[in-house]
Amino acid sequence: MSSASQPGEAFRTTEPLIESLRQVIQGGFGAPLSLVNNTRMRALAEAQYFRGNESDLFFLGVDHEIIGALVLGGVLQNGSHGQAGDLGHVSVRLDGAPCRCGNRGCLEQVASMPALLAGEGLADPGELAEGILAGGYAEPLANAIRGLSQATAAVVTFFNPGTLVLGGSVMQLPGFFQSAKLAVLGSVPGRISSSLQVEPAAGDGVSGAIGAMILAFQSG
């Protein structure tokens, strides 16, 4: 009889699968394998293709998941286990519900598209957008923006990138990007906010592929 999944189990069981795939590819083709998520590829494309070779940039994708990616000195930062920038699992509500990662009150539970839809009993982002235009859903949107600005401001203050790029389906909701931009700028020190460029993602749909080509070129 199989046991029930525990919080965080999905996160713990993916690493052996990734390592097995790495060994198969490298053994079969004699070439190194880089497994990098789409958000990191988008960050690289935003920095080096869409924005004139911006050397220091933080990209935040707010969609089904919430993942950030940091480019410093023109180099994509992956972290020691490839998890750098995973803001979706930063806790922004210590009394929040348990998350699939094992933490409580994670950002994904208040600001991802599935969380916003589920909280209002909706099934389609179009319904949410229509409700926003009609003046509804003010409280969940405010909670989402508060959580996003809290987590993002910490990264921006610590690393001081020149550009913050906000992308994903949630940022396309009516008025959301502008509200998120103002919230982040209002949450960081003035000496940082005065020089920080906050921009919407330029390459939704194609930037991941462009970033992958850039990474392949950099890797030789």
General description of the model:
The chain has about 220 residues and is α/β, with parallel strands linked by helices. The N and C termini lie far apart (about 50 Å). It is built from nine helices and five strands; from the N terminus they run H-H-E-E-E-H-H-H-H-E-H-H-E-H. It is globular and about 45 Å long.
What is this structure's SSE topology?
Blueprint: H1 9-29, H2 38-50, E1 57-62, E2 66-72, E3 75-77, H3 108-111, H4 113-119, H5 125-133, H6 138-159, E4 163-167, H7 176-185, H8 190-193, E5 197-200, H9 207-219
Parallel strand pairs: 1-4, 4-5
Antiparallel strand pairs: 1-2, 2-3
Helix pairs in contact: 2-9, 6-7
Produce a short descriptive summary:
The protein has 220 residues and is an alpha/beta fold.
Q: How many H/I helical runs?
A: 9
Instruction: Describe the largest sheet.
Output: 5 strands, mixed
Structural class: alpha/beta
- Name the helicity range: 40-55%
Key attributes of the depicted protein:
single chain, about 220 residues, alpha/beta, 5-stranded mixed beta sheet, 5 strands, globular, disordered N terminus
